[in-house]
Amino acid sequence: MEGSVFCFGPVSAPWRFEGGAPARTLFHVVVEGSAWLSVPGCEPRRLNAGDVVLVPRGGTHCMGSEPLGPAVPLGEAVSRDQGPFARFDIGGSGASSYLICGSFVVDGMSWHPLLRSLPDLVIVNAGSGRWLQPTLASMERYLDGHEPGAALITARLSEVLFVQTLATWLSQENPTDGWLRSLRDPQIARAIALMHAEPARGWTAERLGRAVGMSRSAFFGRFKALVDQTPAKYLTDWRMTLAARAFVTDRAPVGEVCERVGYASVPSFTKAFRKHHGQTPAAYRRAHA
User: Rounded to whole angstroms, how far apart are CA atoms 24 and 172?
Assistant: First the structure.
């Protein structure tokens, strides 16, 4: 993950801008005042001081002092006259708000189960997570750009903000998705963590159950009920996800990937990969070059 702050500063009503960047995860923080967030197909939502918004897949959205109205592109709503970060240059003489806006490039948004399961909008309030407020306060300190290392420190703080926002959201939500729901069960969550940490290990329901202090039958039944997959199917899906990522991002050879994800032979790995992705490893690599 690589984070960055794009712009910050006060905005005075009336103001309204439009954002969106499909290749990135975007974030907005209402530090002071209030704002309206509008997403196509949904009712506008009022944001208050301390609200942090993640747009995980960078979809088109608008923010403004009113729920509806004309909007300018975010890039036209800022000025880069001074400092490492753009400042807002939009609005009139009405009520004032203070915003911070930025983005993340996240390796995993399309393949990691947690990130893939996120809704189009994640909204939390800094007051609901004890770690969020200090992070935002530190970020504000460096936004004027006068402190040594301001750009680098702010980028790292934005990455911390991303993780803290997700953690706060997960603690508040009651997810219906099987994978997210399973994280609330300590033993099943631990089993998933073991498979993620050591995908090449010869995990079976019995071994996983023993590792988390459960009998095979109890573990198998609870895992399937929560995740809506058997442990073996989940492990295979995770291995094939990692294999596909290795072919595209690492350009790793088939034999190396086969060993990484726990297959004893290239033919058995190739068969499993083709069944999962509908293509041989070579064809998949060419298609995603």
Answer: 24
CATH domain 2-172 topology: Jelly Rolls (2.60.120)
Question: In this structure, what token pair is assigned to residue 281?
Answer: 């490893």
Sign of CA dihedral 127, 131, 137, 142: negative
**DSSP secondary structure, 173-235, as one string:** ----SHHHHHTTSHHHHHHHHHHHH-TTS---HHHHHHHTT--HHHHHHHHHHHHSS-HHHHH
Residue extents of the structural domains in the chain: 2-172, 180-287
What CATH superfamily is the domain 180-287? Homeodomain-like (1.10.10.60)
Digit-coded pLDDT (tens) for 131-160:
788 898 899 888 876 788 888 999 999 999
Q: What is the mean pLDDT of residues 226-238?
A: 93
pLDDT at 178 over 70: no
Query: Which one-letter DSSP state was computed for residue 47?
Result: E
Do the Cβ atoms of 36 and 65 come closer than 8 Å? Answer: yes
